[in-house]
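Reposting from the mailing list since nobody answered there.

I have sequence plus structure tokens for a pair of proteins and want to know whether others read the tokens the same way I do. The first protein:
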Amino acid sequence: MTRPVTEAERFEHPALFYRGEDQYLAGTVPFVQEGLAAGEPVAVAAPPDRLEAIKDGLGDRADQVHFVDMTQAGRNPGRIIPGVLRRFADAHTTGRVRIIGEPIWPGRTSMEYPACVQHEALINPAFTGRAVTILCPYDADRLDEQVLEDAWITHPLVIDEDGGKPSAAYQWQAVVARYNQALPLPPQAEASSFHGSGGLPEVREFAVLCAKRLGLDGQRLQDLELAVAELTTNSVVHGAGGGTLRIWSEGEQVVCEVHDAGRLSDPLAGRRPPAPERPGGRGLLLINHVADLVRIHTSQAGTTIRFYISR
């Protein structure tokens, strides 16, 4: 029988809708101060201008807070849970942990947004039953109305200038399903199919040669090679023995994807820190770490994992 979660263990995940810097500081600085007063470890992960505003608001107490530039650590939304939120929470195993996380800011692209909103939804199952509070600010003046509507679905509580309101729309699973979108292919994509472990060296060489031709080199080329190795191996082991790799260029990024006949049933795959007792299961986590963006579409017809690496 599952033990009921006590009030002290309850996960809290409110959204903060703010308009202008005064409302931002009024919603974030007291949140941090209350955590410090209660002896709770506090982290703030936000864009640099927001970090500076909170630091100024905290004054001498700012050095008691762990600050993270979300535009760097969270550029790929898929690495925020393992690399930012879980990393901080797992380092503090007693008592409640308090975090401000702002993963969606003006300037996020339409290609990034589905991954961002799925991240916000998946915070909920990732922290269920843990004594963690994660406050997610939203710039209500500059973000699209759709972003704010989605925040009501991904957060059980929304705070604005009038106070906190429980969300009647809260249903994180619906957002994960809605943004599980098919990914259109550009006509210029080059493709190579592979089957069995014997086909892996050839498809990896194909990807590296294409990536070089598209302008990747140095560490970025090594990152792509690692991601391709992980994805193609995973397709052989879990995706009916093979798949198809495609690669092309979009703006300043090289884009690569692998499609296979497997079905990805775990929405948190690639978002959990590795368990020391389990040597496997790190492939998608590694890809989230090295890529600038990862998009996934899975259905009965198979799974496509697409990743973006900047030149």
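The second protein, same order (residues first, tokens after):
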Amino acid sequence: MDDERRTATPAGPPPGPPSGPRDPGDAWAYGEDGTKAWGRFGAAGLLVDDGHGRVLLQHRVEWSHHGDTWGIPGGARHQHEDPVTAALRESAEEAGVPDDAVDLRHTAVLDLGFWTYTTVVGRASRPFEPVMADRESLALAWVPVADVESLDLHPGFGRSWAALRATLDRTPHVVVDAANVVGSVPDGWWKDRAGAAARLVEQVRALAAVGVPASTLDLPSTAWWPRWTVVLEGEARSAATVPAPSAPRPGLPPVTIERAAASGDDAVVAVVESAVTADDAPVVVVTADRGLRDRVQALGAAVRGPGWLRELLPD
């Protein structure tokens, strides 16, 4: 094994599939042509990188579907279980991945019509070592990205690896010019600027929890959880005192509130400069202000109008 590869191995060969009660989702799904896939309600898995050029992979036990190959921890979704919950549960059950140690980044969905597989992509928010917590692994390892293709990969993971690898260094960041977005709708915001800004912040927090379609950010995959920064200025700055609610699940990106000491435009530019320096990409600024658009585009940011954001925001 490469010295860079940290591996968890079992004391002896796995004795076989687990026994006992199983969820209704632990069954085959069949297409009209007889094609079968594991997971009556679909399946999901977690691809997590450690931020240092390695991804966590599982050497699948021989008796599993496409056994003795390498892939990501994952499995059948339970009845009424969403794909992200399934991926986090399966990675905890199979590899001991702590549910509070992964920052969610994006999802990629393979849809066969009768069955779906959702790859949830995340990054370790703190170091952890995998633990073989059930019978479904021969080994678990942090594998350098450059070495992944040298392994005998699970066919599905092998087909998707190139596209997934290309996304590992992407960190989208959306910067919201709150004054411009609030002012784009004549709903009486001028009577209570702080209240209008607070409502916008709450809507952005709700959107941050569910993510946005990949196409809205010109990114591959299915949906992304970008970083969010909302810039407040003037009377609206007091909206930043609104406490953030508890996250509905671990790993969701926080919504950062930036209170402009003076010019809101200058504050937006400063946030963009910081994001670009941190290698966030793409950086997207939501504003219709022409002068501000020119300034942030000169820094390499993309620009969307307020309507783009309002179409994404929940009611």
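Reply #1 (J.P.):
I read it the same way you do. The two ends are 52 Å apart (CA to CA).
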